[in-house]
TrEMBL record:
GO CC terms in record: cytosol
Coiled coil: none
Superkingdom of origin organism: Bacteria
Domain NADPH-dependent FMN reductase-like: 6-144
Pfam families noted in UniProt: FMN_red
Protein name in UniProt: NAD(P)H-dependent FMN reductase
GO molecular function terms attached to this record: FMN binding; oxidoreductase activity
Length: 188
């Protein structure tokens, strides 16, 4: 079966952010799953303009191409003030058709809530963009205490099982929706 292209999006752009640690761990899980080719899109490197001019810059075009190629998405998001970061909103607002009829999964991290409030705010936004969010998530409560200094999980069993469940579900949706788009192109 043809591999699936998954874009793992690192949503935080803050100085001192923890997102790359979580994203690196998850990207490894996705690569080892066996059904995915992984492309990590780090919004800190994307340099997307905050002002939405309607005229895409070369930076927007570069990200657009990568999103278009993806069969599925995994958004790695922290929780900032009970929601998701502005950098993710900027990414979403610059892109429309790239999300359509494709599945989106979430890996979140934060304090007590583990970033889950950010995920719940993202679900209706992706619905508006005609994407399908999947139920399974991976959530890290007090994430900085769950990883060692080398970025490895201290107790990997639970998160690894959650990642497998997420990736299994994401693969099912990605195959199904890719096949459907080939048979009948999606029209919003």
């Amino acid at each position: 079966m043809e591999p699936l292209d998954v874009a793992v999006i690192v949503g935080s752009t803050r100085d001192g952010r923890f997102g790359p640690v979580v994203a690196k761990w998850f990207a490894r899980q996705a690569s080892e799953h066996g059904e995915f080719r992984v492309d990590v899109i780090d919004l800190a490197d994307a340099n997307l303009p905050a002002a939405l001019s309607g005229r895409p810059t070369p930076e927007v075009a570069a990200v657009s191409e990568r999103l278009e190629k993806a069969d599925a998405f995994v958004v790695v998001t922290p929780e900032y003030n009970h929601s998701y970061p502005a950098s993710l909103k900027t990414l979403l607002d610059w892109h429309g058709t790239q999300w359509q009829a494709k599945p989106v999964a979430f890996v979140s991290y934060g304090g007590l809530s583990g970033g889950l409030r950010a995920v719940e705010h993202l679900r209706p936004v992706f619905a508006e963009l005609h994407a399908v969010t999947i139920r399974e998530t991976v959530s890290f409560h007090s994430a900085w205490s769950q990883f060692d200094d080398q970025g490895e999980l201290i107790n990997p069993d639970g998160p690894t099982a959650a990642a497998k469940a997420l990736l299994d579900q994401l693969a099912w949706w990605a195959h199904s929706l890719r096949d459907a788009r080939r048979v009948r192109p999606y029209a919003s």
